[in-house]
Design brief:
mainly beta
């Protein structure tokens, strides 16, 4: 059974850093491109970052220079290191398996359960 379990969310002050993790199981992790998706209250899902199965990375303009996506295939894990956090980064963050192109948010069934990130003073 495919599982994606995010962790590491919490409340942080603007300008601070936070790291998220995603533990994958039930599929051959190293054979999949992965992405991070976020969804703020009342908003649609937003693509945040992608890492290809080969390790190439891509970022949305809103997070470029502040976030870093990495993967550890030996641990079946995906990570998102976030720095200089802003109020607009507040959202539920999900890791997801990519089933379309590298920048298309897949159907919700391909996401994990999510972890909340709240940036507030």
């Amino acid at each position: 059974q495919v599982q994606l379990v995010e962790s590491g969310g919490g409340m942080v002050q603007p300008g601070k850093s936070l790291s998220l993790s995603c533990a994958a199981s039930g599929f051959l992790f190293s054979n999949w491109h992965m992405m991070w998706v976020r969804q703020a209250p009342g908003k649609g899902p937003e693509w945040v970052s992608t890492i290809s199965l080969g390790g190439n990375t891509y970022y949305s303009d809103s997070v470029k220079g502040r976030f870093t996506i990495t993967r550890d295939n030996a641990k079946n894990a995906l990570y998102l290191q976030m720095s200089d956090l802003k109020a607009e980064d507040t959202a539920l963050y999900y890791c997801a398996r990519i089933v379309g192109d590298l920048f298309t948010v897949p159907r919700r069934i391909f996401w994990g359960h999510g972890t909340q990130v709240t940036v507030s003073s």
